[in-house]
Amino acid sequence: MKLHAVIDAVTRRITQRSAATRSAYLAQVQAMAQRAPGAQRMGCANVAHAFAAMEPADKRRASALDKFQPVAARAPNIGIVNAYNDLLSAHAPLQHYPDIIKDEARKLGATAQVAGGVPAMCDGVTQGTPGMELSLFSRDAIAMATAISLSHDVFDCALMLGVCDKIVPGLLIGTLHFGHLPTVFVPAGPMTSGLPNNEKAKVREQAAQGLVGRAELLEAESAAYHGAGTCTFYGTANSNQMLLEAMGLHVPGTAFVNPGADIRAELTREATRTVLGQSTGGARAACTPIGVLVDERCIVNAMVALLATGGSTNHLIHWVAVARAAGITIDWNDFSDLSDVVPLLSRVYPNGSADVNQFQAAGGPGFVIRELLDAGFMHADVTTVRPGGLRAFTRIPHAVDGALAWADAGPSKDETVVRPAQAPFSTSGGLRLLSGNLGRSVIKVSSVPEDRHVVEAACRVFDSQEALHTAFTANELNRDVVCVVRWQGPQANGMPELHKLTPPLAVLQGKGFMVALVTDGRMSGASGKVPAAIHVSPEAAAGGPLAKVQDGDLVRLDATAGTLQVLVDAAEWDARPLATMPAALRAANGIGMGRELFASMRRNALTAEEGACSWL
């Protein structure tokens, strides 16, 4: 199928824009790849330190100490970077993965070492608390920890073990700074289905209205989040996994296999085989260095997959940063232009009622990628970690006599969850770029009712999410209202997600009021049915126009026209002074819960549209 004209045009535009930085990046990758392996290049003391704790046989293989073994036959050494902790349900299964990987590596005549661990925090745990203000910048901390892990420089390839929101982007940014290493990402899969997400959301709204108490709410939450694995809604964590499939960085079809599934451990072994160029079935081929693999076409494929599945808006920040790490520059115009033509092929909560297990059962990533390839919306001619290119990622893994095999995803098993490209849920990707005198922003409309795509109402300005909750509890918001929540950007307080605003705003919308949120903070993939103009840039703390807005100003959010305007006389608006962050808020920001350690990141953060990077 011929590539769609808009996909081609956006890719060419990105390639041209990135020519100088991408060329410089690839030159650095090539220079690193041409060096001798660490065990030959480094001093004897360095090598001895690196392999001191290895089992004797592994040590001899990794360092070529065996006098009967030619130096050229030194075994490849895999660096494992692990985001394991047993606080995060999605990461708890990763505890024993290194043992599986080491065992498989030995069978293949290779070695493996845990190069390091990276922090992994959960927005679900920290939501609405001071700890949430570390969340966005934990991505860059994870990238740095990945770099520290790999800086020992004795590795021939790498496996990245991680799943959730900031962890995968952080691992990806970090390993792209070691772009000469072939790298495969290894997930753990989603937890089995518990209390349906729609039912959980109803209990949250009831709690916001005081109709149920803490005991009932905790029971519902615990029934939804009940075991090992990723949360089952299609937020940032599961969007990560979809994008990694579309980029060809997984063993095909690995993303949404449950932790307890019979083939889960075998898929982890297959990741080991893949990074060593010895994957099951088909031709054996060396795994391509990740810096070469992640090119402009690969990034566009990820963007398309995000739009086609109604994925998390967080990736309008994260994948900008990921692309930058590979010398590629993308922006929100690119996302917007792609969204205009990419069809929406799946409905998974909060964009539908299905969870990710139902998505997987209906066809999952394999179905979506095949449909997008067949309709010309993805680049088929990309390199992936497997022989066969992206077509290999249209197939679903299963076991045959104890061995892995892959089969085509086939037709949709449930067209309420996934649909073919010829009959999509929508002919566009459900993402809109908004611009106007309030700045640039994005809105995810794939789950917003069509009669709510345009909201015009007098605004109420809040300096914190707690202030909005207070006003809601006092019944001050029972009207058509645009809630402006400012001082929530990267420079102000680290740009926390504002999920706890969803229940009260949903309650107001449920009462029939026209309601919208406008913020320089984040809402992620869980913003749901309430229209939310998020990531407003420039942020209020950087002198952005949200700092001019006053209570009672008429604000118009128009997702159809792509505008975000305050309807104030232009001369008055231009003359209006910028408000400053309230002194009490400024004094409290960045104090306690370790937030002091992230002060330099807040000072140096780029805008949301530039990836909120703190390392450039």
- The Cα radius of gyration reads 24 Å
Helical content (DSSP H or I, runs of 4+): 25-40%
Poorly predicted spans: none
Global mean pLDDT: 93
Number of H- or I-type helical stretches: 25
- The domain tally reads 2
- Numbering strands along the chain, what is their spatial order in the largest sheet? 7-8-12-11-10-9-13-14
Shape, per Cα inertia axes: globular
Structural category is alpha/beta
Description:
By secondary structure, the chain is α/β, with parallel strands linked by helices. It has two domains: 5-37 and 74-192 and 227-408, no CATH class; 431-610, 3-Layer(bba) Sandwich (Glucose Oxidase, domain 1), CATH 3.50.30. The chain has 25 helices and 14 strands. The strands form three sheets. Strands 7-8-12-11-10-9-13-14 form an eight-stranded mixed β-sheet. A four-stranded parallel β-sheet has the order 2-1-3-4, with helices on both faces. A two-stranded antiparallel ribbon has the order 5-6. α9 (167-176) links the parallel β3 (157-161) and β4. α1 (5-17) packs antiparallel against α17 (332-341). The longest helix has 16 residues, at 135-150.
List keywords for this structure.
single chain, 616 residues, alpha/beta, Glucose Oxidase, domain 1, 25 helices, 14 strands, globular
Offer a concise description of the structure:
The chain is built from 25 helices and 14 strands. With 616 residues, the chain is of the alpha/beta class. Strand 1 (77-82), helix 6 and strand 2 (111-117) form a beta-alpha-beta unit.
